[in-house]
Write a structure and sequence with these properties.
The complex is a heterodimer of chains A (269) and B (261). Chain A has four helices and 20 strands. Chain A has a four-stranded mixed sheet, with no helix packed on it. In chain B, a hairpin with a 4-residue loop joins strand 3 and strand 4. The chains are: A mainly beta (269), B mainly beta (261).
Chain lengths: 269, 261
């Protein structure tokens, strides 16, 4: 590597990283073909927030020809914002096209704040072992504030985690290079935002949030495995502000909450 | 690459084009671009220069500031071009100046009422002439909320071609309705009249044409809105040949759900 660096100069890092990036892909292949995959979804639960998950019969959506009488169930695994396991439950959803899971109600009273969760469909094993594909839940989360009846929905962000019924395996990729993910979005003055970051890798990640045109918001932080972080953004100066997320993760794409007086807009950055 | 600017009745559309790369690992040299807006008159692609975007700048384009004729199909398409274009075209231009893959080079695409707005980060490539659509809508809402399926289609050819979208209660397999949608247009299908209950999953099938599907909705005074795309079947799996699996899933459902009642 050192010799190559002498020959190629700084380009070696780019070449090496691009090769590694392309070779690895955004998401690792799980070690166990019996695993099913899930996103790391965000849950929020406190006096202000409620969260919902739309649980679908994914096995049936994939294979309507093998609809059987057997029970279909999903395993929901919850982590706190530090990435620690806090709760797990199985939900039977047989014969339902759609079940709206009120996360605020299924989490025990003492679990509050925010964190991540995943949803695994293990009922029928992996239906695609021959093609090397895995069932994945990238489903939809809805969020409400202040007891509103209307949910703001966002779909899964990244296939992040695998589960074979015994072990969890993190699938997010990273390497030694600094990757700058530039949100193609401009934050506006006078509006409250929250930017949510998660860590889908198997290593604690250091992240540098760099705000172009408003460096008072800059922040260096670290996120534990399966952990999450909420960065609040507000400024009064009449200007537009951009965000660069610098990390070793291949695509540190955040979720953004934009708050309006009565509603909220949630989307992927 | 094209970026939709959506104009629905009683709402305005806002699309912000960004002339900076979304990452530093696929970054190419930036250049100033001309922004054109395209719409189909059924025979040709009409277009109009709406601005110039210097490198590293962003520009917000709003339906309020453009003439009504641009939105005869309820959506027009913004195209960043290195060069000036000359007059109407028989096909969309194919030069793509934004080449990032992970993620794609996206715009901020929004719909606003007088009281709020919703948005997503997106882009659009023309669909092939022959394509199909299977999607599910898992986030209908209730309590005085108007739910719609919003479909955006773009093809290289300017013809406005009608096709049928079938609406099913998927798990019961009941055909509820057939609606017409158009190419190179935004189509808005109201869903409340089908009275889907909270455990039902609406299915939508189009056997001739594809589109980007969204769940769109709002409350009575439009102070609360939602907009989110619904997943294609390929999103149900990861790794391996996802396109082939998507084809298999579509084929199974297309055979299972038929209009022969």
């Amino acid at each position: 590597m050192a010799a190559l660096k002498i020959v190629l100069g700084d380009n070696i890092l780019s070449l090496f990283s691009n090769f590694t990036y392309l070779g690895s892909g955004l998401t690792k292949v799980p070690n166990n073909f019996n695993s099913t995959l899930s996103d790391l979804f965000l849950w929020r639960k406190d006096l202000e927030w409620s969260s919902y998950f739309e649980l679908l019969d994914i096995n049936y959506l994939i294979s309507p020809e093998i609809k059987s009488q057997m029970d279909q169930f999903a395993t929901l695994v919850f982590f706190n914002h530090s990435g620690d396991w806090v709760y797990q439950t199985e939900i039977n959803y047989s014969a339902n096209g759609r079940s709206t899971i009120d996360i605020t109600k299924i989490l025990p009273d003492h679990i509050n704040g925010y964190g991540t969760f995943s949803c695994f469909h293990l009922s029928q094993g992996n239906l695609f072992e021959e093609t090397g594909s895995f069932i994945a839940d990238r489903g939809y989360c809805g969020y409400t504030r202040n007891s509103s009846d209307v949910k703001s929905y966002v779909h899964g962000n990244l296939d992040a985690i695998a589960y074979d019924g015994e072990k969890l395996e993190m699938l997010g990729n990273y390497n030694v290079r600094n990757y700058e993910y530039l949100l193609q979005y401009e934050f506006e003055c006078g509006i409250n935002y929250e930017v949510i970051l998660t860590n889908p890798t198997n290593k604690k990640q250091e992240i540098n949030l760099r705000f172009e045109n408003h460096d008072q918001l800059d922040e260096k932080l670290s996120i534990e495995v399966r952990g999450s972080y909420v960065k609040r953004i507000f400024f009064e100066e009449d200007k537009k502000v951009r965000l660069v997320v610098e990390s070793h993760m291949f695509m540190a794409r955040p979720i953004i909450f934009r708050f309006h007086e009565l509603s909220l807009d949630v989307f992927h950055g | 690459m094209f970026y939709p600017l959506i104009k629905l009745d009683n709402f305005h559309g806002i699309t912000t084009i960004h002339n900076f790369s979304p990452n530093n690992w696929e970054a190419e040299e930036l250049t100033d671009v001309f922004l054109y807006i395209f719409w189909s008159n059924g025979a040709e692609w009409e277009n109009q220069l709406i601005g110039q975007l210097r490198k590293n700048e962003s520009l917000e384009i709003c339906t309020k500031n453009l003439s009504k004729e641009v939105f005869i199909n309820k959506v027009a398409f913004i195209y960043p071009s290195k060069n000036k274009l000359n007059g109407n075209l028989n096909q969309l231009p194919s030069e793509n100046i934004y080449k990032t893959i992970v993620p794609s080079w996206r715009a901020t695409i929004g719909i606003e009422s007088d009281l709020t707005k919703v948005s997503y980060q997106g882009e659009m490539e023309p669909f092939p002439k022959k394509s199909s659509l299977l999607t599910f809508h898992p986030f209908l809402q209730y309590e005085n909320f108007d739910n719609y399926l919003l479909l955006l289609n773009l093809t290289n050819e300017p013809e406005i071609i009608e096709s049928q979208i079938e609406i099913y209660n998927g798990f019961k397999g009941e055909l509820l309705d057939i609606k017409t949608i158009k190419t190179n247009s935004a189509s808005l299908i109201p869903l409340n009249s089908y009275n889907f209950d909270k455990s039902e999953l609406p299915f939508f099938i189009n056997r001739q044409t594809s589109a980007i599907p969204f769940g769109f909705g709002y409350n009575k005074d439009k102070s609360i809105m939602t907009l989110e795309h619904t997943h294609p079947p390929a999103s149900l799996v990861l790794h391996g040949n996802r396109n082939a699996i998507q084809g298999q899933i579509k084929s199974k459902w297309f055979n299972k759900l038929t209009t022969n009642v």
